[in-house]
Amino acid sequence: MSQLVDLVIFGGTGDLSTRKLLPALYQLHRHGLADRIGRIIATGRGEMDTETFRTEAQGNLRRFMADNHWSDAIWSRFRDSLHYVQVEAGDAQDYADLAGLLNENGAPIRLYYLATLPSLYGTICQHLDAAGAVNDHSRVVLEKPLGHDLDSCRAINEDVAQVFSEESTFRIDHYLGKETVQNLLAVRFGNPLLHPVWKNTFVDNVQITVAEEIGVEGRGSYYAKTGALRDMVQNHLLQVLSIVAMEPPASLDASDIRDEKMKVLRCLQPITAANVKACTVRGRYDAGAVAGQPVKGFLEEAEYKDAENTETFVALKATINNWRWAGVPFYLRTGKRLSRRYSEIVIEFKKQPFSLFANDPNELTNKLVIRLQPDETITMHTLNKKPGLTRNLRLQPVELHLTDDRSDKNDSYDAYERLLLDAINGDQTLFMRRDEVETAWRWIDTIIEAWDETAMPVKSYNSGTMGPNASTALTARDDRSWYE
Ligand SMILES: NC(=O)c1ccc[n+]([C@@H]2O[C@H](COP(=O)([O-])OP(=O)(O)OC[C@H]3O[C@@H](n4cnc5c(N)ncnc54)[C@H](OP(=O)(O)O)[C@@H]3O)[C@@H](O)[C@H]2O)c1
């Protein structure tokens, strides 16, 4: 029988815990997958008793969850597992209290979820260790951002590694918890039809878009120091890219998959001062309208002195120097206040060498479109004959939907549910290994150095559009275009 796990959330009163973690844990109960979860101990700096925390948690769950997911019977079980302990990250006595609670009929496995400021991760790990709250069966989950460059990322990893081994460290990228990202593995490696065409002989280009409608939403001072490249490309987009581009792994085990992802990251060609202007675009949103509502520009919202040099949009052309992908551009783009919210991977296949038809199918190339949000779908864009009695055969686009619309909507789950369940079960497959994160930072740091060296401008774009015109030019220079 699998052992019980006590889960301790540092930052248990924060936004992430309230909106994502506690609802995901409730859903695990609802889906009957909580049999390994012992106590859920939330920590925060404020003085509060467990009863008050439970009452607040109930109100928040009702606020952030669909009404038809609520059940008094499930809440009653979930409620009993919730506890609150006051912990100030630097206060040794607070850890002694926490360790005392953990030792009272504690579960054999402890999972510490650090959903608080990354600058506190080292301190928290050291105090947990000093309080005797870490043993060989303890694990730690680290939320992003893991630093703001390679050096700061290494420092956090080094501090955590003093207490937790790499096998006990789970670095979250919630994109990896999305059903479609895992489905991508199934589609790629389960279909003999697709396997032979997944390479430069057949693929013309790959596009990865993560578009947000929202602006910086109260995160202005954090975001002004960070920008879209660090906030989104370093983690989500490069993680998705590495899964799209990796070689078939020896097995679906964590180490085999992560070895293959790592090889892709190592093959990324550095973008330096010599090619940064040709390969990257930086943008910043001005005022405009999103979903019919007027919105402010970033500089009006950010109130940070260096915000003029912060990008809220980035587009880039990445090159993977290996046998499979030589010559295939990977276009990545992400931004805030864009025309709509969606995340998508597009694998665009090469054009026909010659057209037999009355209309040109080259305008309608085959594409595999993998949508990660708002809906999770996989669609193959193909061509067939336009019905009719006209003499010339004409082509028309036909979409083949590869996602199972028979599946019950009640089976759908949030990425945090998947990732929490995996961390509870000790499965690291969908978490980032230290070398992956550090290699990604090395590539990102080189771009930022090149931006500094060349005084790369940040071009403005109207809110509610898909970024600056230079983004269109990035693909147009290669005689290609973004799939919209
Ligand atoms: N929010 C999101 O959607 C999101 C998404 C991805 C990643 N993240 C990451 O998740 C982490 C938490 O984000 P958040 O948005 O939840 O932040 P938040 O709302 O500001 O919450 C911060 C939490 O950390 C606790 N805390 C702050 N300073 C502390 C200290 N000195 N000692 C002990 N506890 C302390 C706070 O406790 P009290 O307020 O009770 O004192 C609170 O529970 C950050 O690393 C963030 O980058 C957040």
From TrEMBL:
Which residues of this UniProt protein bind substrate? 174, 178, 212, 231, 336
Q: Name one Pfam family in it.
A: G6PD_N
User: What pathway annotation does it carry?
Assistant: Carbohydrate degradation; pentose phosphate pathway; D-ribulose 5-phosphate from D-glucose 6-phosphate (oxidative stage): step 1/3
* GO MF term list: glucose-6-phosphate dehydrogenase activity; NADP binding
Is the Transmembrane helix keyword given for this protein?
A: no
- For the ligand (NADP(+)), the binding residues are 45, 144
Sorted UniProt keywords: Carbohydrate metabolism, Glucose metabolism, NADP, Oxidoreductase
Residue ranges of the region described as Disordered? 463-484
Domain Glucose-6-phosphate dehydrogenase NAD-binding intervals: 8-183
Recorded catalytic activity of this chain's protein? D-glucose 6-phosphate + NADP(+) = 6-phospho-D-glucono-1,5-lactone + NADPH + H(+)
Instruction: Please tell me which top-level EC class this enzyme sits in.
Output: oxidoreductase
- Which residue positions are annotated as catalytic? 236
The EC number on file is 1.1.1.49
**What residue spans carry the Polar residues bias annotation?**
463-474
**GO biological process annotation, one example:** pentose-phosphate shunt, oxidative branch
Task: Output the NCBIfam families linked to this UniProt entry.
Answer: zwf (TIGR00871)
Q: What does this protein do?
A: Catalyzes the oxidation of glucose 6-phosphate to 6-phosphogluconolactone.
**What is this protein called in UniProt?**
Glucose-6-phosphate 1-dehydrogenase
Native species: Parahaliea aestuarii
| Gene transcribed to yield this protein | zwf
